[in-house]
């Protein structure tokens, strides 16, 4: 059961990473990165490291997402295709 849950969390993290790199909408990319961090929190809890999981939840999910969302708010939501 633990192995199945670990594989499910790994799939969750891979899906979040795919969302983060494939979107032109920067808000959706931030959501993808938050999903990766949430998957890491689940992995840490699953492998009996609750102190690391709580730190990841506080810094990785909450603080990083807040900082990235403020950047998206400041610079705009969509990537500029003309610069490529």
From TrEMBL:
Stretches that traverse the bilayer: 52-72
Subcellular location: Cell membrane
Annotated ranges, domain MrpA C-terminal/MbhD: 12-76
Topology in the lipid bilayer: Multi-pass membrane protein
Short name of one Pfam family: MbhD
Signal peptide per UniProt: none
GO CC annotations, alphabetized: plasma membrane
Keyword terms: Cell membrane, Membrane, Transmembrane, Transmembrane helix
Main location: membrane
Keyword Transmembrane: yes
UniProt-listed InterPro entries: MrpA_C/MbhD
Protein name: MrpA C-terminal/MbhD domain-containing protein
Species of the source: Imhoffiella purpurea
């Amino acid at each position: 059961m633990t192995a199945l849950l670990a594989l499910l969390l790994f799939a969750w993290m891979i899906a979040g990473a795919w969302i983060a790199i494939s979107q032109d909408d920067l808000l959706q990319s931030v959501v993808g990165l938050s999903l990766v961090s949430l998957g890491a929190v689940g992995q840490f809890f699953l492998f009996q490291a609750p102190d690391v999981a709580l730190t990841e939840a506080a810094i990785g999910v909450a603080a990083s997402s807040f900082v990235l969302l403020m950047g998206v708010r400041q610079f705009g939501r969509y990537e500029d295709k003309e610069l490529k």
